[in-house]
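> run fold Phosphate-specific transport system accessory protein PhoU
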Amino acid sequence: MVVRGKFEFDLNTLREKLIEMGSLTEIALAKSIDALENQNIEKALEIMEEDEAVDNLDEEINDLSILLIAKQQPVATDLRRIMVTIKISNEMERMADFAVNIAKSAIRIGDDPLIKPIETIKKMHAIATEMLSLSIKAFNEEDVVLAKKVADMDDAVDNLYGQTIRELLELTQHSQESMPQVTQLLFVSRYLERFADHATNISENIFYLVKGRHYDLNN
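> ok
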């Protein structure tokens, strides 16, 4: 019973670290969009420095998971829970990298006046953030209904991504000088679209955890 109690404690530690990682990723993305909109270079630099905390959590989750598997030799749902935690941790680490990439785009744009308000980008950010938040909740509660809701939200991000591309490319028809900034904003849109894709991947992992089989929720 003592061994099982320690195992449950370590599983809970893994879950808490993953939730913390999700929270840091959400904050990093919010700061990156704010740095872009308000052209705040200092804030963009902070995001790049703070990414180390997410990377450290990813390493801690991987190390503890390997230790748990080696020492406890879990099976069935317990093993899936550990493996899914590792995979979701990797997804979040990449999502946090997208926040860093957006911060880098904000730095490259610098203090040049924005060629247009970033409203569609902000809408993409709002949905992508909600997808991450709900996916964390779905993981914590092992809720496949909520996980499916997250996957369904990806269509809205994809539609806004297409709209953003059209709007930005239209600008270049009237002003070739805007191309460098348009390029950076296209990158930002792409990072947000990929961010949402990774939230969908988290949902697929939750389905695997609960149902014991793989589902493709991207189609």
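The chain has a mean pLDDT of 94.
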